[in-house]
Amino acid sequence: MSCEHLICAQCAGPVAEGRCPTCREARAHIHHHGHAMTVQLIAAAALLILALLTVAAMHLGH
Q: Is 2 helix (H, G, I), strand (E, B) or coil?
């Protein structure tokens, strides 16, 4: 999600510009949340790859 096209209900300015405290808080919340999801997706993908490699190694070992 991006704050590029959002308009603040408090000051009627673009949220991306952060003109008022409400804009700045919304912008920080949107950008912080997106970053956390990216880190979680990378960690999940790494765990999945590790699990697949472990299963493959066990299968080749027998």
A: coil
Q: Taking a C-beta distance cutoff of 8 angstroms, is the pair 45, 53 a contact?
A: no
> At which residue do the structure tokens 């590790």 appear?
50
What pTM was estimated for this model as a whole?
0.44
Q: What is the pLDDT of residue 11?
A: 92
Which H helix or E strand runs over 60?
helix 21-61
Q: What is the pLDDT of residue 57?
A: 93
Over the stretch 32-55, which tens digit does the pLDDT of each residue have? 655 566 778 889 999 999 999 999
DSSP characters for 6-54? -B-TTT-SBGGG--SHHHHHHHHHHHHHHHHHHHHHHHHHHHHHHHHHH
Neighbouring CB atoms inside 10 A of 27's CB total 18
